[in-house]
Amino acid sequence: MTRGKQKIEAQRRNAEKNQKAKGSQFEARAAALKFTCPICKVQLANQNQIGDHYSSKHPKEKPPPQSE
Fold first, then answer.
1. Which long-range contacts (CB under 8 A, 24 or more apart) does 22-26 make?
2. Which residue of 10, 21, 33, 36 has the smallest Cβ count within 10 Å?
3. What's the pLDDT tens digit per position in 20-44?
C-alpha cells in the first residue's frame, strides 16, 4: 500500500507544481512596461527599445535623454 500512497502524493504535488500562476498577465505586463513614448504613448520595457522605436517610428525626432 505504501507505493500506492506515494504515487497519489506525487501526482498531487506535481498537479500543484504545474498549476499556472494566479494573477493577470495584464498586471505583469504593466509592471514590466516602464517607459512611454511621449509622441505616440506606446509603452516600452527599456531605454534601448525607446531608441529603436524612435529610429523606426519617429526618424526625424531625437529620443528623450536617458532618465536612469
1. none
2. 21
3. 767 777 777 777 788 888 899 988 8
Residue whose C-alpha is closest to residue 35's, from 27, 26, 46 = 46
CA dihedral for 57, 63, 36, 28, sign (positive or negative):
positive
Largest distance between two CA atoms of the chain: 74
pLDDT in tens, 54-65: 999 999 998 888
Count the neighbouring beta carbons within 10 Å of the beta carbon of residue 44.
17
Residue owning grid cell 516602464 = 34
DSSP 11-48: HHHHHHHHSPPSS-HHHHHHHH--EE-TTT--EESSHH
The C-alpha atoms of residue 45 and residue 33 are separated, in whole angstroms, by: 4
